[in-house]
Each structure stands twice: as structure tokens, then as C-alpha cells.
Amino acid sequence: MSEAKLYKELGALTKNKDKWESNIPYVRSLLTSTDSTTKIKAKALWMLGEMVLKFPSSAEDSVPAVIPFCDSKEPLLRERALNALGRIGRSNYQSIEPHWSGLFRFANDEEANVRLSFIWASENIATNNPDPYKDHMEVFAGLLHDSVDRVRMEAPEIFRVLGKRKPEFVKPFIDQLRNLADSDSNRVVRIHSLGALKASGFVKDDKTSDSDAPEVSTEKSKSVGKRRSKSDHDSNSAESEVSSRPKRKRA
């Protein structure tokens, strides 16, 4: 089957959630097939994360299929492996727990999109399993000052997710977040930093005025594409053809 035909078939399967559970083994098999291209493997990784989020009993068999891609030389595959582990870890943390500490190396990955996906995966995992992050907040504090704006735009969101659940984890970083909220050059960074402070209960949650409404980032990349600046960690089921990360609702 040609890449184009298989990709179209996977796109149809993405939309048909009734067939997800029975097709998890098939999607998983695409990760090891010698006929699968990078594009197909990337699609399969994304789909597997979404499928196992919905059917967490499949996690034990799926995580071993995803882990090797964390060491891929292809940045897109590292990125998608993190996406998948984040979604799987959100619904079945035990299945990824042996690999959890190893994910932190991606905070220093040479590719900005991989660093961004590390943050996003951490947000997913922390949504239902915040406790393991207690002694690792400094890593995310460093990403607040990443050299790439789209990474800095995402970094405050992990403080918001954890702030809603474990505000004591965020408390040592209040001054940093307040400085970003008050004076960062990037408007989305300012808004997301303020959101983290509000979620943690360290500032009053006043209504956001129209002038302070978040803007959509105009930065694009082949694998990230357009993203809503006010986003969180429940993806829609349909993957954007230009985005490596699904759109998300607030947690």
C-alpha cells in the first residue's frame, strides 16, 4: 500500500472511534513494519497515544512499542513518542512510570519542538499524577527562559496544571512567573504566566479583558503548525494535518 493511501486509511480510522480498541494492535504494528515511512510512524505514534488514552488497558503492550522512538534520530518521531507517552501516562501512569524519569532529558533536546512536546507530555501526565513532579520543578523553571518563544509560551502551562492541583509546587517560582506576567516581551508568555499564578491561587482571578485575550501564535513549523495560545491537555480526536500536537481543552 502506498504511503498516501495508508495515511488516508489512518485518517479515516482516527475519526472512527468505535473501531479504535480493535485496531490498537494494527496501529502498533505499523511502528515496527519495515514498510512504514517516517510519516506513517509519526501518525501511528500519535494515534496510539490517543487510542490508549481512551482504552488504558492496552498500555502495557503499547508502551514498549513507543519507547524506542524516544531515541530516534528523527526529531518528529521523538516528538510524537513524547506525545504518545504523555497521553498514555495521563490514563495509565503505572505503565510509563519506569520510563518517567528518563523523559526529563528531553528538556535539553536540541530540537525546540521536542522540548515543547516534553512540556506538553508532562502536562498530560501531571493532570492525574502530579505528585512525581514535586522535586523536578526547576527543570520547567529553566524552560520558562528557553531560547525559542514557542517553548516559552508552553512552559508556564505546566505551572498552571500543577498549580491547580499542588500549588505548593509552584510557590517557589511565584516571583519568576510574576516577572514574566508583568514584563515579558511575548504577549502569550505574559498571559500564560498570569494564568499559572491564578490557577495556583496566588493572584485574584479577575475577568480577562478583551485587550488581554490570548492571541494565536503566528509562528509555524512543519511539525507544530498553528496552535491556540490558550490550550491544555485534552485533545480533540482528529489530528491536524499540519500540527504534531492536537488541539486541547483546558483541564
Tell me about this structure.
With 251 residues, the chain is an all-alpha fold. It has a single domain, classed as Leucine-rich Repeat Variant. It has 12 helices and 2 strands. It has helices at 3-15, 20-29, 38-54, 59-66, 75-91, 93-100, 112-128, 137-143, 149-165, 167-170, 174-183, 187-200, and strands at 234-235, 248-249. It has a two-stranded antiparallel ribbon. The longest helix has 17 residues, at 38-54. It is elongated.
CATH architecture: Alpha Horseshoe
Helix content: 55-70%
Order of helices and strands: HHHHHHHHHHHHEE
Low-pLDDT stretches are 207-250
Structure summarized in a few sentences:
The protein is mainly α and 251 residues long. The protein has twelve helices and two strands.
Sum up the structure in keywords.
Leucine-rich Repeat Variant; mainly alpha; elongated; about 250 residues; two-stranded antiparallel ribbon
Set out the fold topology:
Elements: H1 3-15, H2 20-29, H3 38-54, H4 59-66, H5 75-91, H6 93-100, H7 112-128, H8 137-143, H9 149-165, H10 167-170, H11 174-183, H12 187-200, E1 234-235, E2 248-249
Antiparallel strand pairs: 1-2
Helix pairs in contact: 1-3, 2-3, 3-5, 5-6, 5-7, 7-9, 9-12, 11-12
